[in-house]
Amino acid sequence: MTAGEASKERERRRGGMFRKEKSILLKDSSLALYNNLSVLPLPTKQLTYFASVHGSTVNMVSASADGLSFSHRQLQAKEGSLGVSSSIITQASWCVLPSRVLLVLTSEKGIQMYESDGSIMVYWHSLDGMEALPGQAMFARGIAATGQRFVCVGTSSGAVLVFNIPSKGANITLSEVLEEHRAAITDIGAELCEQPPEGIADLVTADDSGVLCVWRSGEEFKWIAKIPATGCTCSSVKLWNGVVAAGYGDGQIRLYEATSGTLRAEIAAHARWICALDLAPLSGKLLSGAEDSFVQVWGLGRNLDTGDIEVEHCHTECVADTQICGACFCNPEGSAFAVTGYELSEILRYTQV
Fold first, then answer.
1. pLDDT attached to residue 307
2. Residue 214 · residue 204 · CB < 8 Å
3. Is 172:113 a contact under the CB 8 Å cutoff?
4. Which of 115-129, 143-157, 201-215 has the least mean pLDDT?
5. How far apart are CA 180 and CA 8, in angstroms?
6. pLDDT tens digits for 83-135?
């Protein structure tokens, strides 16, 4: 076995070696926004939904399990009772709760929640009346489902809005506003669990200054820890097994203990700004995409003897001449992932061999 063959065999054993599959063409290209891709696997229907943002439109595609059949839809966001679509959408993300799945959009004007297929808007929350930071426009950005019935959405003022979601119907209410941040929210990460034990975190919020706040959801959300800024924006953040994974504008991924905020590992992952992270909950795989055209797959775990966080590099993929703006795993195991890029009119897909 040659050195190259040995390297490939090691990569295969640790969960690497992804091959490119047929791309999904989009009606419009993806904009250069943080985390500009959301994926919703529907194994019972043998379908996977994909969504990316272009201006005031969301490109939605449903793909069959065999990858041979695609159905396209463009969702023109309707804002408020007048049904006027005029402002730029900043993010689109599916929020999966135990009893319900919603497609949530954020924009310059407010927050829109749709049934999972985008067919019916069930809730609209206007940002009118909220105070913007000096010299900054108002917008919403950062979306995550947490607990049994909450959807959290960030704003440019640094406030995080907590919505109480019923199992059905449109009786969605704003139940709480979290106000620890002093800069615009960039992303929100959550780990769904039935009832987190006392002191255990299941939500993390990030902002433009690089500050992270860790929370425990409940009837009243509890602030657990604040992780100070490192000198640049934290553009994407995820939470897994008590570990906060944060991607930054300097290309670094930093791993923290969620309960204490202690830095456990720092990865020189990319040469340019990281624009997307994702975590596969069943395997602990971490996916990162950046402006340097590279997508990386990492394996996270804990040493059973010491409790230390361990990191292993699993795979590198280069999307030549493309500024990556979205990257998501396509299933909870992390055996497939998808990628979007600025001005790229397709979604690239990769499957583990």
1. 82
2. yes
3. yes
4. 115-129
5. 46
6. 555 688 999 999 999 999 999 999 999 999 999 999 999 999 999 877 766 66
- Residue 45 class from Cβ within 10 Å (0-12 exposed, 13-18 middle, 19+ buried)? exposed
Sole residue written with tokens 């690239």: 348
One-letter amino acid of 173: T
Token pair recorded at residue 17? 């070696």
Integer Cα distance of 77 and 56 in angstroms: 7
Contacts of 185 (CB under 8 A, 6+ apart): 141, 142, 154, 155, 156, 158, 159, 160, 205, 206, 207, 208
Tokens of 178: 């979290």
- Rounded to the nearest integer, the mean pLDDT of the chain is 91
Residues whose CB falls within 8 Å of the CB of residue 328, separated by 6 or more in sequence, listed in order: 37, 38, 39, 276, 278, 287, 337, 338
Question: Which pair of tokens denotes residue 203?
Answer: 């939500």
How far is 265 from 254, CA to CA, in rounded Å? Answer: 6
Task: Report whether 161 contacts 125 (CB < 8 A).
Answer: yes
Over residues 281-331, the pLDDT tens digits come to 999 999 999 999 999 999 999 888 888 899 999 999 999 999 999 999 999
C-alpha 351/C-alpha 353 separation (Å) is 6
